[in-house]
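tool_call predict_complex ligand=iron/sulfur cluster
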Amino acid sequence: MINAVSKNRYFIFRRTIQIGLLLLFGGANWWGWKIVNGDYSAAYVLEWFYLADPHAVLQTFLAGFVLSSDAIFGGIIVLSFYALIAGRSFCSWVCPVNLITDTATTARKKWQLTKKEGFLGISRKTRFWVLGLGLILSAVVGVAAFEVVNPITMLHRGVIFGFGMGWTAIAAIFLFDLFVVEHGWCGHVCPLGAFYTLTGRFALIKIKHNSDKCTLCGKCFAVCPEKQVLNIIGKKSGFIRGACTDCGRCVEVCEDKALKFSIDNYKNIGVKNNE
Amino acid sequence: MAEMQNRNTRRDLLKNIFRGAGLLGLGGAVWGTAAEKLKASDIVLRPPGAILEEHFTKACIRCGICVEACPYNTLKLATVDGKAAVGTPYFEPRDIPCYMCTDVPCVPVCPSGALDPTELAGDDSGAVSSALDINKARMGVAVVDQEACVAYWGIQCDACYRACPLMGKAITLEFKRNERTGKHAFLEPVVHRDICTGCGLCQHACVTEKAAIFVLPRTIATGKVGEHYIKGWDKADEERLKNLKEEKAKKSSPEDVLNDWENLFDDD
Ligand code: SF4
Ligand code: SF4
Ligand code: SF4
Ligand code: SF4
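tool_result ok
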């Protein structure tokens, strides 16, 4: 029992934060709590200051509207937090879609659906093209192009304000991940994940690998949603960078303590991890 | 052999580039069209202080903070049902109108500038700090369908008139003699668009099965006369005449016209 908890310690912590945040945001609308109002596009914290999604702020700027300072500063705060400290941790610690796609992955493993990645020829780099395309379209069409189809805020708003027919978009992502591409949405398509991957390159918090302790058991590969970032495992010690979501799954399953949360020392930062 | 392989990889590379470009173009076309379609809606009522619809959908970051600030649950966030651009706030007065809170809690909390307090600035200085005046809201304008309004039939009803927070200003009742009965009066509701805020309390109160008075966006429900009509009986409007640039009629003699052979056969 103790072992099971310890093997899932970050998982439990993450789910607590993810669901707790949903509750805090939901409570604002359902019961009038004043802790965080709004959603993951922008939030009003303690009726004191604002946070905003930097990707949405950037799109709006490209669409040709100068947001008021509340949204701009809100975007800068969030961007600084992830860029300087927390990397791509939004994906595994905050984003509600992660709950859906993780469930799809679990089901996929359980039912032993095809493991083959890259089916349909989708590369993990696709998301960077989606990110770029979204920014270009924002400028061309004159509206924040990803925000009009964004399933992340659609899900978040759905929980807080009611789904309407919005659940279909979420179901589509679930089915896509379950039947079409393993880690399809978060690992291949989502431009917000791509955005935080790019901005999180120099963040302080990183997973550190000690290859002297590693016995090459391969448990970390089995749980990692972005396996390509583990390319140094067993080969050399160093930091896991790139598309790593800081979910900590590898840390908790590693029985040799060869992986742990750490502070980046920026050595060899130029060496490209697979993103 | 090596050269052969080289050529193959080069061909693969080219193929991949073309395939990538094709997919990107296709994706861009589909996504762009969708975004264009999803970007704005013609007939939608926005919260008080909203900037023009075409800017609003750009500006609104879709956070719903205004929705949570509204104590009457007037405001809703659009889902994918197409009532408004997804995630943006709107209201449907027949369900819940805007009750025109004097402190206007929905506007100052907006972080994006989609709801602009200066639109409601109490004095005309435009300063944000001056108290907000909800009567300056222009969410839309009420329109009466005279065929469906029972007051225009001669039946007594002043539900909309009494519901209006600007009773007697935004809506007035016009008295007319009812020739059919010879002894009754018509009390016809008439909306004055310069004062109507578009709150929709009238639409909410209307007694007919489908409201005979309803709020439409101003861009849709209002016409425009144009500069060339001037109210000769209105001193202020007369002033405009003086500011108009005199357009001097081009004087040219008949010979000049005939000699200007290059333009002789021009239609204009
Ligand atoms: S990749 Fe996108 S959807 Fe997935 S967890 Fe990250 S932000 Fe959320
Ligand atoms: S003025 Fe009051 S009732 Fe009207 S939308 Fe704003 S908060 Fe709601
Ligand atoms: S508060 Fe402003 S940005 Fe947020 S939903 Fe309302 S209008 Fe849009
Ligand atoms: S919408 Fe109706 S109730 Fe509201 S101000 Fe206009 S006329 Fe009056």
